[in-house]
Amino acid sequence: GSVWSWTAHVSVLVLAGSVWREKEKARNSQSEDRGLGCGSRCSMARPMTDSHRRFLQTIMCNGMIEGSKAQALHRHCCEVHGVHYAHDRLDEFLGVINAHLQPMFMHIRKGVSEEDGQQHYALVNIAETDITRMASDYSDNELELFRKAMDLIVDSENGTASSTDLLNLADSLQTKKMKKKETEQVLQRLVQDKWLCEKEGDYTLSTRCIIEMEGYIQRTYPDLVKVCNICRSIAIQSQMCENPHCGIKMHIPCVAKYFRGRTDPHCPSCNEFWPHEIPELTRPPSQTPSPSQPRSVKENTAPFSQGSRHKRLRR
User: Fold this and answer.
1) Distance separating alpha carbons of residues 116 and 282, to the nearest angstrom
2) pLDDT at 307
3) Fewer CB near the terminus (10 Å): N or C of the chain?
4) Phi, psi of 243 (to 5 degrees)
């Protein structure tokens, strides 16, 4: 099911892993005393420290963390547990956690928000690679509604679908028809669970959805979805080069960054003139907690907002 339905399972297994590691240490020590060395155990993943476990617990509570928050949390976890902190070692730090999550088919994955271009880290379930991962939280007709909503969003010119269009999907469901009120409630749940985003009556795929379902999206819409030429993440809300022999896409924030200060924009791939309006580069206020903030702010916050939306432009 969803990431949050795995929380208790992961907690139990992380605790079990701690007990297992203590037993491994004892066995390794006995082996070394007998002159056998550690053998194949030397190739095992580095053990998780309390700093890793604290980080994992926090991301389990939030589901997804904005990049600056993750950097601050990394530093906080290391300082609390007296572990050496290096500001450029977050990916290595997460690699240790991911090695221990792998047997549970979980992974902390990095992605980019199409709203503001900022990096995010999400705890995802990699055991199921399509919408069936949501089956424990949604009924068959609710999943069908989400599939059809995704179809509309991905196939649109600007990566959005109006609330009117999504409500009209209720009459076309094959599993079981929905009333309009019921459809509104399902869409609201999808937003609350961070599969969709809604603003001013328009719906988009959330950052969490894109990070967790990237493989499914690429397989299902191979002719519609390309990766951004700048950040190399899949691009749904984007601009596209109009040269028929090129056709690269760039996220709106990536467009703003790439063409910043350029009065005569050209495609970074084919060098043709870029005909789209260049959005202004805006950056949401930093959400990085200051050292004076209490631990609860860093470790027990609600899921973070995704910032303000850039003006939508056609792809």
Assistant:
1) 8
2) 37
3) N
4) -70, 115
Q: Is 38 helix (H, G, I), strand (E, B) or coil?
A: coil
Can you list the alpha helix ranges (DSSP code H) found in the chain?
A: 7-33, 50-62, 67-80, 90-101, 140-155, 163-168, 180-192, 207-212, 214-220, 252-258, 295-299
What is the spatial distance between Cα 104 and Cα 12, in angstroms, rounded to a whole number? 11
- Cβ contact 123:63 at 8 Å: yes
Query: Which has the higher per-residue pLDDT, 285 or 42?
Result: 285
Pull the structure tokens for residue 15: 């605790």
- Whether pTM > 0.90 for this model: the answer is no
Q: Is the pLDDT of residue 13 over 90?
A: no
176 pLDDT band, cuts 50/70/90, is confident
Instruction: Please answer whether residues 186 and 193 qualify as being in contact, where contact means their C-beta atoms are separated by less than 8 angstroms.
Output: no
Q: What mean pLDDT, rounded, does the chain reach?
A: 79
Q: What is the rounded CA–CA span in Å between residue 256 and residue 146? A: 31
Where b means 16+ CB within 10 Å and e means fewer, 199-237 reads eeebbbbbbbbbbbbbebbeebbeeebbbbbbbebbbbb
Q: Are 154 and 217 in contact (CB under 8 A)?
A: yes
User: What letters, b where the CB count within 10 A reaches 16 and e where it falls short, cover 56-83?
Assistant: bbbbbbbbbbbbbbbbbbbbbbbeeeee
pLDDT digits (tens, 9 = 90+) for 70-105: 999 999 999 999 999 999 999 999 999 999 999 988
Query: Which residues, in sequence order, are CB contacts of 258 under 8 Å at separation 6+?
Result: 230, 250, 268
The backbone region for 275, taken as left when phi is positive above 0, alpha when psi lies in -120 to 50, beta otherwise, is: alpha
Q: Are 166 and 34 in contact (CB under 8 A)?
A: no
Q: Which amino acid is at 266?
A: H
CA distance linking residue 44 with residue 126, whole number of Å: 21
